[in-house]
Amino acid sequence: MLRPRRIAVIAPSRSPLAEPFSGGLVAHVWALCTNLLQRGHDVTVFASPGSDPRLPLSDIALTGPVLSEDARADVSMPPDVVLDEHHAYLSVMMQLAAQPGRYDVVHNHSLHHLPIAMARFVSTPMVTTLHTPPTPWLESAVQSGPRTAMRFVAVSEHTAGRWRPLLDHVDVVPNGVDLARWPAGPGGCDLAWTGRLVPEKAPHLAIHAARRAGRRLVLAGPVDDRDYYKLEIEPLLGDDVVHAGHLDQAALSELVRTSAAVVVTPVWDEPYGLVVAEALASGTPVAGFRRGGVPEVVDDSCARLVRGGDIAALAGAIDEAVLLPRAAARARAEQACSLELMMDRYEALLTGAVAA
């Protein structure tokens, strides 16, 4: 058994770690922190206000600095949200730098560049999980200087491959789901699509494919892009396509495990695809686009993947996916997508960072 560690977790700042989760990243970090605590570690979570009070929280203050009128009048003045986030992570990193020896390891899940850029000023070793492909600010941060106390881990081989030209070494720890919180279900007649309703996840393509396949579709997730929703989704809603809203985990699990298949329609390279793992845990086969890390989560026993953007092919994949054995989907989740497996890997990696 691994010795308990004092772990500081830096969460993404734009959404609290609380249900209903705003997306897969937030759900992942919440599950990781919850299970590190259950395994006996001393955890401090730097997260947005409003996060789950059962976690040992240190709020990321998103109020930002009080600026003079001269500063606000400057032509380079960024939007308030950008400055607030910058100030928040600057404060977190300065706090960590001022507390040498307080933690054994820092686990960074932020999409912001400052935790990586400022890691050299913190004596505690840091592990950064890469949840996205390279971005300009993150690339700049990883190239900004020595990273001897920094380890990087990606959520899929696909994502690791995008980062490896920039980094000496990238570990891979696929995301996992709590199989107890996502029990297998009996299925049903309808299809489900879950996630943030945004252009890059393209739920409108799922609607077109479901109609072509002659199946009713239930959408579930937050409306993160109001213009897209009003232009591309609302006009398509009807008796055969409904938006169930932003569901908490229990209601979402109920929807997924009573669906015939889950439709997954990214039009960008998904770094992992947590909704796919959640579907498999529920015993629900997947029909979707072959993009990013999604092909690593499934195999032919539980999914049918087609070329991205091909609605006709996706409709055919739906026809095949609903006939796949539900037991095979659950078995795939147990083999490759379990939270226990993910936690074992992260514990070993965090412990290794301390010993390095």
UniProtKB/TrEMBL annotation:
Q: Which residues form the Glycosyltransferase subfamily 4-like N-terminal domain?
A: 23-181
The GO terms this record gives for MF are: glycosyltransferase activity
Q: Which domain of life is it from?
A: Bacteria
Membrane-spanning ranges: none
Glycosyl transferase family domain spans which residues? 194-331
Q: Which Gene3D superfamilies match?
A: Glycogen Phosphorylase B
Q: Which UniProt keywords apply?
A: Glycosyltransferase, Transferase
* Pfam family for this entry, one: Glyco_transf_4
* Protein name per the record: Glycosyltransferase involved in cell wall bisynthesis
Tell me the organism.
Jatrophihabitans endophyticus
